[in-house]
Write the structure tokens for this entry.
Amino acid sequence: MLKHLSLLLLMLTFTSLMAQKKEFSVLLYTKTAGFHHESIHEGVEAMRKMANEHFFTLEWHEDASRFNDNFLKNFDAVVFLSTTGDIFNEEQQAAMERFIKSGKGFVGIHAAADTEYDWPWYNQLVGRMFRIHPTIQTAKLKMIDKNFPGNNFRDGQLWTEEWYQYNEEKIGDLKYILAVDERTYNPKANWGRVQGEGMGEFHPIAWYHEFDGGRSFYTGLGHMGATWSIKEFTDHVFGGLYWAATGKGM
């Protein structure tokens, strides 16, 4: 009788542990060494809500020392949420490179493209780096890949954003998801020594690619805190995260 009871308890414990296993595990990183976006706060809360809704594990940190092999092995993807500036030393950069090379995922949101300009590998991971932006304006989105996970935007949908202009591609196989129609807003910007006239006919905003053994998704949306309460945007972020963390959805 005791033997059967012990076996039953063991089976119940095993079933309980299996039931608690999350889909995947994500490290959310928000360190800034340059401009600090206030929208990071809304972004963190939205990411926590997303983790609950989609049953994945989320840890939020701003401590660069966490980027070591022993800690990173616990995660399937890393999200850089509006990080800025030089946020890693060489050892931490090397750990991040090994993480991606092991088949893991990266998600960059908004100012992740305004981060680590002097780290060539990271520039390639993101795909394009930030150059300049005009004032916040409303413009029309252009749908490029409606089949990418979570892409529920409508072609021609009005969207209000701080429209980043980007440098040339750092790697030549980016797969684009969204663009902005420059005919529907004023893309000109003048910061004194840096000026921008826009990107012309093709102004990408979101893209993805496989890189160095892993997966990378980037979106330039997300400057304003209010954006994180819009379902199309959170669906967009989760779609990119799901693909980056699992390789599924395509």
Observations:
- Residues 12-17 have pLDDT under 50 and may be disordered.
- Residues 25-246 form a domain with the Rossmann fold fold (CATH 3.40.50.880).
- The first strand starts at residue 25 and ends at 29.
